[in-house]
Amino acid sequence: MGHDPWTELRDRAEQVRRTIESELRVTTPGVLQEAPADHGLFALAAHTWAKELKTSPASIATRASRVKPVSPFAPLRAEGPYVNFTVDPAPFAELVLSAVRSDGETYGTSPARKERVLLEHTSANPTGPLHVGRARNPFLGDALVRLMRAAGYKVTSEYLVNDIGRQMVLLYWAVAHLPEDPSDSEERIEYRYVKLYQKASAKLEGDETLKREIERLTQRFEGGDVQLTKDIRKVGEAVLGGILETLRRVNVTYDSFFWESDAILDGSVQRVIERLMPLGKEEDGARYLDLTGFGLEGDAAKYFFVRRDGTSLYTTRDIAYHLNKMGRCDVAIDVIGEDHKLSFQRLKAAFQLMGIDWAPETIFYAFVNLPEGRMSTRKGRVVYLDDLIDEAIDRAYAEVAKRREDLPEARKREIAQTIGVAAVRYNIVRVQAEKAITFRWEEALSFEGNSAPFLQYAHARACSILAKADGHGPSDLRLLVHPQEQMLIRWIAKFPSTVREAAEGRRVHAVAGYAADFASQFNLFYRDCPVLAAEPASLRGARLGLVDASRVVLRNALDGLGLTAPKEM
RNA sequence: GGACCCGUCGCCUAGCACGGAUAGGGCACCGGAUUUCUAAUCCGGCUGUCGAGGGUUCGAAUCCCUCCGGGUCCGCCA
After folding, report:
1. What structural domains and CATH numbers belong to chain A?
2. N or C: which end of chain A has fewer CB within 10 A?
3. Residue–nucleotide distance: A231 CA to B65 C1' (Å)
């Protein structure tokens, strides 16, 4: 475990770079960059030294290229103003593929790190089913959990259950007082509840008696009425159960849950209030922190933590929650919607004001909107994640049925589910989190080109070859000199560092892009290099080894994104 | 009004943190490849003032400034 051939190659190239610099007697260090595919593995731009040596980059490159490189690099080549590092195919193939062989199925993972990471994601309020506008959160969060684990971090995934606040009280009231529509055929509880919630929400407009009722309940609730808290929590638990069921369908699970009501019941919210009191200012009986000077001004700088009636606010509970987190990890990562940006800026400022030298890391994502605007559960303008999943699986089934009449029904269903779910996840995760997405059915259900089935298909192809091979037989890796074999080996080499850098930079989409490129390279190899029919036997064996290595890379890349790699499709 | 984010072929998108070789993909459209390991594949064609302008630099999609367009936020809501 833990081999990283690309970094190994880069280190060797850096060694050569230093030799070049001492030969040239230059003091400015050059920057080793990855070379375009047809110019070797790495390159140095000689422009860097032109000023210092007072000659042209091209002539410097020529001089530099006389330096003898180390294995597996071939003699350096000057091409225009660049010094290119190409490799000798045979030792290159051996270096990379022996690394894969010794790591086996774990190739791509990095050695354990000491940081404990607590990664919070999704944390949707338990007031209704998960909708697509929120779906970015679990897909991004879960993929990051997986990739960080592969990169060696010790990661705990957590869901903050927000069972406090007016929304929860209103849902509780609706469930307790409104009759369910007897013709309602919905089986799942959160779908039935959300309809009651929408009704109550509509009724609230202009109904003063109900408004007062909800206010009274809210006060009792937040004042610490244990029985009421338990009753409301029961409603929250039911809805959360449904949300988690939806998430399980798309392979998202959690290690732990934190209930906001617990922070009230165990007194930690009260302790936060007492701690903030001396730091706060007063306005009409309410209390706030003045965060002017932390890059905030005006109303944005007022961070209220106690209402006039003495009850806590979301902000207060958020501080309590993050103080709790602080004690449980080295790095806390919160995956949240960009609407929380100001909140977190204030939370971090509040921590500074409290003299706490720690802050959670944040990953903000832009919303998935409908062409007609933002999704809203309250207004009923939503696409539920379950519906998207159902539709994706249906379409995948149609495709599988078309292609694989030979398979038994159950197997076709299984494959359709694998493909449909992956397609939905991949379409979200391939895009940078900060970019806004407009949800369109045709795009969300794309099965061609840059899509999950494209990656899965490459994996299935690899598996299919291996299944037919019946053992590898003799193998000589030095025979893998075909340009497309070499290109594939290069991509295999890059896998571990790609995962590690994506995890360190919290850039999930980088792995999605890598996986697509890799699948593409594998398809080119598949086209150009017959495997089972290859002669001599030692070339066949070597190609089988290459296919197996590709299989491991694809499987682990897909897994890091939370996508299942099917053996056939 | 202020703060933060985004702006790359008709549409979606990578590259930007760390500046270097003709800005990569995909969709759509047109044309081709299947007696060969699954054609959910592959090949060719078409499409780009990298939002605009200025600056820094030998070199800018990438860094800096200004502006424009879009998103998000600025509750004693969560």
Report:
1. 5-87 (3.30.1360.70), 121-369 (3.40.50.620), 385-560 (1.10.730.10)
2. N
3. 58
